[in-house]
Amino acid sequence: MVVGRxxxxxxGDLHFGSLVSAVGSYLEAKSAGGLWLLRIEDIDPPREIxxxxxxxxxxxxxxxxxxxxxxxxxxxxxxxxQEAIDQLLKKxxxxxxxxxxxxxxxxxxxxGTCRNGIAxxxxxxxxxxxxxxxxxxxxxxxxxxxxxxxxxxSGDFIIKRADGLFAYQLAVVVDDEFQxxxxxxxxxxxxxxxxxxxxxxxxxxxxxxxxxHLPVVMSVDGKKLSKRFGADPVKHQNPAIAITCALQFLNxxxxxxxxxxxxxxxxxAHWNSDLIPREAEFSPGGILTV
Length: 290
Known about the structure:
Elements: E1 3-6, H1 16-30, E2 35-40, H2 52-62, E3 72-73, H3 78-91, E4 94-97, E5 126-129, E6 136-140, E7 144-148, H4 150-153, E8 157-160, H5 168-178, E9 183-187, H6 194-204, E10 210-214, H7 239-249, H8 260-270
Parallel strand pairs: 1-2, 2-3, 9-10
Antiparallel strand pairs: 4-5, 5-8, 6-7
Helix pairs in contact: 1-7, 5-6, 7-8
């Protein structure tokens, strides 16, 4: 069975950019007769805003986006992440690292300083995944064939941070496997995470889901529309209008004047991911007043 998911972090209220990802992931799964799950990625407390997880869930429900099962909170899964790290350490696929950010190359790539052991007198800070020299290749349903050499782009990457928190790259892989996710539909701003996640999946003996990376919603000044840039929460919009705008952004051409229930019926019957543009063709500034 097809199983999709939407996995927001509780760092602010739902905005139009994240709504596009929610709608795209929902329709891609549900139009195929599959399940759509909701996961709250709350493993970075310093960045989280109190109450935003509940508001995101409530706003999704008001918009007709109801998950097919209980909401999974990553904060309840810490033991599973540690078990995965222990497995990688035991296999020699991860190692302790004493380096800080200033020790990286100018490109941000890790130079492999602690690959063969930490220098005397330096305490371990983080845990890194040991990448190999080959290319990580996959075909994105929307963006096409992608190939990346992690050894050249990122180098060995962090899976447990110096502050003791688990890295996103590890947690998302462990939870996608736990929830039996078969397709990941998300914004193209996460495209460069996919090669790292596929490498972790292979190392842990997991299956790899299919990927589709949607165009990123841009603000009128050309910045990614996100909580960081003060994007207007979706809750200030009429639900049917907000969903209509998301469908328009995804080039689905929904009829106007429908109720929210009628709009979802139309969207499920007419969903065509082949129509989605690879890159954003407009910002939501002009369409949020439909």
